[in-house]
Amino acid sequence: MPLNKHNSIVYFGNDNPICPYCDMEINIEENGLAELYEEDSHEFECPFCEKEICVRSRVKWSFDTTDQE
């Protein structure tokens, strides 16, 4: 299913990036990719298929102030 244009939603909005070439989920912590937590575009080599991929990180902050006296 790599680079499946009909199923591109599987590559969007995941907790970890999924390689569009080999469909493997890339664990951010295990692969030393902490820079992916910064909102931006990032290029790196997939640790599984060794192809260069681009990941766009989107950050959404939410705040909770419900625990107050």
How does this model look, in words?
- It is a single chain.
- The model has no long low-confidence stretch (mean pLDDT 89).
- This protein is 0% helix and 17% strand.
- With 69 residues, the chain is an all-beta fold.
- The radius of gyration is 15 Å and the shape is elongated.
- Strand 1 and strand 2 form a beta hairpin.
- The chain has a two-stranded antiparallel ribbon with strand order 1-2.
- It has one domain.
**Approximate helicity band:** under 10%
Instruction: Kindly give the count of domains.
Output: 1
Order of helices and strands: EE
User: For the report, how would you describe the main beta sheet?
Assistant: 2 strands, antiparallel
Radius of gyration: 15 Å
Structural class: mainly beta
Poorly predicted runs are none
Strand order of the largest sheet: 1-2
The total count of strands amounts to 2
* Beta-strand content: 15-25%
Report the end-to-end length measured between terminal Cα atoms.
Answer: 52 Å
Question: What global shape is seen?
Answer: elongated
Tally of individual helices: 0
On the 0 to 100 scale, the average pLDDT is 89
Short note summarizing the structure:
0% of the residues lie in helices and 17% in strands.
Short descriptors:
69 residues, mainly beta, 0% helix, 17% strand
Give the SSE map.
Layout: E1 40-45, E2 52-57
Antiparallel strand pairs: 1-2
